[in-house]
Amino acid sequence: MILKNKIITDIIINSVEDLYKLQPFLEDGTLKINKSQIARELEVDRRTVDKYINGYKKPETRNRDDCIKPFYDIISELLSDRNQQIFYYRKVLWQYLVDNHGYKGVYCNFAHYLKRYEEFESYFRKGNKTKSNEITLRYETPPGKQAQLDWKESIPFILSSGETCCGQAFL
């Protein structure tokens, strides 16, 4: 009878990710492994060593629930053409959902998940205009010499009665 054993002599364990190399020794019973000693040397818990020896691999990504799904219909209605309210920024939409619809998520997650929906992303992208090649020179004067203001005409206002009127304003 001829026995062929593959004897591994060069096992190097630098981290818990390398512990899977010890699994064949546990299965054969050819080597007794001191998990507590390995845990002390790697500065981890003994149960962590056991878990990684048995083949555990840390997942690359976390499985997270989509925070937009419960509010999809509300967001879709708010961003539709039928709605008079215009949301120029994602943050304004997020704040509106927090204040009026009980949304509990943080803004950065909301903005991240909102980008996954093309119909919502295109709503915020349509306001981005291409930049012109014109150069604007600043006109600077000493403090107190000149004042600058903006004049806006034909700004539509919707009154509480539902009536729409136009106004003008200094800004």
Summarize the structure.
This protein is of the alpha+beta class and 171 residues long. Among the domains are: 38 residues, no CATH class; 57 residues, no CATH class.
Provide keyphrases for this structure:
7 helices, two-stranded antiparallel sheet, 33% helix, alpha+beta, 2 strands, 171 residues
Write structural notes for this entry:
It is a single chain. With 171 residues, this protein is an alpha+beta fold. Among the domains are: 16-53, no CATH class; 69-125, no CATH class. Helix content is 33%, strand content 9%. It has helices spanning 23-28, 35-42, 46-53, 72-78, 90-101, 107-114, 118-125, and strands spanning 151-158, 164-170. Strands 1-2 form a two-stranded antiparallel sheet. Helix 5 packs across helix 6. The longest helix is centred in the middle third of the chain and has 12 residues, at 90-101. The radius of gyration is 32 Å and the shape is elongated. The relative contact order is 0.07. The model has no long low-confidence stretch (mean pLDDT 84).
